[in-house]
Amino acid sequence: MNNFEFYSPTRFVFGKDTENEAGKLVKQCGGTKVLIHYGGGSVVRSGLLDRVKKSLEAEGLAYVELGGVKPNPRSGLVYEGIDLCKKEGVDFVLAVGGGSAIDSSKAIAAGVVYDGDFWDFYQGKWIDKALPVGTILTIAAAGSEGSGDSVITKEEGNYKRGATGEGIRPKFSILNPALTQTLPPYQTACGITDIMAHLYERYITSSTDVEVTDRLIEGLLLTMVHEGPRVIADPDNYEARANIMWAGTMAHTNSCGVGRNQDWNSHNIEHELSALYDCAHGAGLAVTMPAVFTYEMPRNVMRFAQVAVRVWGCQMDFEHPEVTARAGIEAFRNFLISIGMPKNFEELGAKEEDIPKLVEMLCRGDGRDGTISGFMTLNEEDCTKIYKLMV
Ligand code: NZQ
Ligand code: ZN
Fold this sequence. Notes:
This protein is of the alpha/beta class. The protein has 15 helices and ten strands.
């Protein structure tokens, strides 16, 4: 196991009606004037936004609103949010929605207290300072409610990039599984896929003797295999939604990723798909992961065979472990298809002729040096082969 530090100071408030505690929690964090930041309107239609405002008003807190965050959030609204916060003297950013609203909120929070262009953070500058951020989560997926990460697409050049830093880890996150009951089945399935991706990206490692985190990841993957189909069949199943929601948060606080090298090649390769085609991140991952895993598997056959046996119930073939490893990848792919995810470029809406452009954006875009690095370092030729496996 590698040396590590783990510090994850978000206060999670979980359960029915917990959104009504928003005002109290903002006050405890010292907020006096709040930016409420949200997406395309689901929180307006569900009545959640009104409940949140009432909760702020009950504590005597002032607020301004900025809606309109799109899935795969864009830089333009971030700049608008930064200007609004400066003009209005906002001292707390409250995200109401999914990963997109949360990530846009984090970018605004970091940009308000920074003298330069907020995009510097998305080119690798660590974020150690930001306005405090709180979240009210409406979809179990990205894990942004417990992560120190944010992913934004720069409109100029269409680059989708991530930023990291303790400064943007939420001070609190309100998780009411009932709020996810209004999700369309496709978005629920995209969320399930993203959660499983966050687990797999950590599972695929060259670190050895990491049994505790292996077992945590396997437990969470098994939970998703059990609860995923239950929630797709019965969208109002609160208990299944509750288990998925907490698994989604656990998957990305990094509690099961400490002490080990991680992969993240699938995420990097997918981000170009959601940047170019504006598809849902989870749907892009459903197509990307089996291709990446197939490509990476020969590098550590036993790791892929292990997850095949322990999660997917495959029989271990000791003479040909690669057969077991491949069966595990296939079982995962079939699971994703069974919950309604796309299986190839065509179903995702991607085009084979765009592969050179995707590779260029991935490996050279926004100052990259021709490779991406995870469990394996991949060059342009590798990435071309991986995209071709998805066709
Ligand atoms: O915009 P609204 O109207 O709210 O609709 C959203 C959106 O269309 C809808 N939705 C969310 N909650 C709903 C609902 N509709 C009905 N009822 C509800 N309760 O669902 C759609 C997707 O929302 P979005 O916030 O985009 O979903 P998600 O949470 O999957 O976030 C995706 C973004 O997160 C990034 C992704 O790349 C993508 O940009 N990620 C962020 C990470 C992080 N910060 O740590 C890590 C992830 O790996 C990921 O890359
Ligand atoms: Zn993800």
